[in-house]
Every structure is written in structure tokens, then in C-alpha cells.
Design brief:
The chain is mainly β. Helix content is about 0%, strand content about 35%. It has a domain at about 10-25 and about 45-95: GroES chaperonin (10 Kd Chaperonin, Protein Cpn10, Chain O), CATH 2.30.33.40. InterPro entries: Chaperonin_GroES (IPR020818), Chaperonin_GroES_sf (IPR037124), GroES-like_sf (IPR011032).
Length: about 110
């Protein structure tokens, strides 16, 4: 690594940079049974935190939490931490303080 200037990452077009939420690993059922992250009951969607968006992204902002299929995304390592890059259209839902078309359910 050089000691050059730090370069800020800016997402382009319809791309979204997401950090997986820490609770996306091992989880518990409502009865208290531990379900390992490797258990496959169905294709499991994951929640993540939006860190950056491209200038064509319309419905997601940095700081939002989004629901997506992590298997369909591209992974990138930034400063030793894994992040995912996806298109806005691959996001199934957004959890945000800005409500327009809410479900009445909250995280």
C-alpha cells in the first residue's frame, strides 16, 4: 500500500453498496432453537445497511436497511471487511424512517 491520498468510493449508476447486518449469521427460532447460518430451509433473504448509492438510485438512501438475496450479489472487500454490490432493482424491501408505501411492520 502506498501512503498516497485516500480515495473515497462513489457508487455509479444504479448500484448500491451494502454491508451485511451482523445478525445475518446464526439465528434462533421463536422457540429458542439455534439455527446455524448454513441451514437451508428455503432461499433466505438478508438485511444489510446501505453505505452508498449511485446517482440513478431513486428509492434507497445511505443509512437505510435493505432486504435482498445475498447469493445473487457481488462481494468486495474494503479495508478487510466484506461488502456487497447490487443493483437497486435487486432490492426487495427497504426499512427507512421515510414512509410512503409502508407495510405496518417495523424492524
Amino acid at each position: 500500500m502506498s501512503d498516497g491520498p485516500q480515495l473515497e468510493i462513489q457508487m455509479l449508476h444504479d448500484r448500491v453498496l451494502v454491508r451485511l447486518s451482523p445478525e445475518e449469521g446464526e439465528r434462533r427460532s421463536s422457540g429458542g432453537i439455534v439455527i446455524p447460518a448454513t441451514a437451508q430451509v428455503a432461499r433466505r433473504l438478508a438485511w444489510g445497511d446501505v453505505l452508498g448509492v449511485g446517482n440513478s438510485v431513486r428509492n434507497v438512501k445511505p443509512g437505510d436497511r435493505v432486504l435482498f438475496n445475498p447469493e445473487d450479489q457481488f462481494e468486495v472487500e474494503i479495508k478487510g471487511e466484506g461488502h456487497l454490490v447490487m443493483r437497486e432493482r435487486d432490492i426487495h424491501a427497504v426499512a427507512t424512517e421515510r414512509t410512503e408505501h409502508g407495510t405496518g411492520l417495523y424492524l
